[in-house]
Design a protein that fits this description.
Elements: E1 25-31, E2 40-44, E3 47-53, E4 59-63, E5 77-79, E6 82-84, E7 91-92, E8 98-100, E9 118-119, E10 121-124, E11 127-132, E12 155-163, H1 167-175, H2 180-183, E13 202-204, E14 207-214, H3 222-226, E15 233-240, E16 244-251, E17 254-266, E18 269-278, H4 287-305, H5 326-340
Antiparallel strand pairs: 1-11, 2-3, 3-4, 4-9, 5-6, 6-7, 7-8, 10-11, 12-18, 13-14, 14-15, 15-16, 16-17, 17-18
Helix pairs in contact: 1-4
Amino acid sequence: MVASTQPPQIDTSQTTSQTKILKNFWYGIEHSASVSTKPKSITFMGHDLVLYRGSNGQAIALDGRCVHRGTDLGAGWVEGDCIHCPYHGWKYESNGACSLIPANQPGVVIPRRAKLQSYPVQEKYGLIWLFWGDLPPEECPSIPILPEFDQAGWRSIHGDFNWEGHYSRVIANTIDMAHAPFVHASAFGRKDSPAVQAYKLESGAWSASGFITFETKPAYSLKFILGNDPPDGIFRATFYMPNVSRVDLQFGRFQFVLFLVHLPVSDRQTITKWLHIRNFILTPLVDGFMRRDVVKTFVQDNQAVKIQAGAAPDDLTVEIHAPSDALELAYRKFYNQAVEMGWV
């Protein structure tokens, strides 16, 4: 018998818990500036939510479908702290309880089951964060810190990007150390220098980070900022469970941070709420150029994300890994740890 020289086929179609949402974490779900007294519908891995602001400007998050006929409450209206269904006018308090059914005759009792789930929310770094879980939020991992956001000498811009892939693949892409020479070859990637230097994995509480140095190939706006003799770059990637990644790039005295909150929409769609924070050229006049650079990079990354096979598998032996994958593997291990704790 002649042994086969064909490599084994990798079955990535197996069931993976990463198609589900980890609980007992804070999830960034929207930019604060995008939420007002006009209700806003949010889809969170197939779960419908509604966001709006109450009478004091506080953000309120509830299940997004009326318990009567499943109507989208994002099409409703807000009065004070309450939201009304656009179909039959049912009124829900900020705690989710139905307090008015207009069609009822006086004295008719509202069913106890006429209640929406409400969710704790916080606002930080110009983002609305929703707590998804069944433990007290104070006993669970906190929102990551981002000191540059309101620090003097830094300027922040923000935006959204729609990915055609599962959020586990999007997070992996944003912390990946090895794809730039190929995915970004037409921009800042050096295809003639693809080797990734060994890096030390720095683990924290539900987070990990690593950095490498590289020979700079300026692209986009950095061509004009760094000039013809750019310094070597430092690339640091960090993730915070369950859906945040951070990219730090430094070229001498020039630094910028990409703070990325990846909203899981479905198995094949992720929306990233991104912040770009820079310590150079602080005038708003260049914000458009910086925004364009971020989007161009994500467009190239999306071409790689959308051709991958669904969610990242839980079983680390299903795919074959290289040393440069250490940071992504740390994410998967933390994910599996949360699953083993019953946080899914």
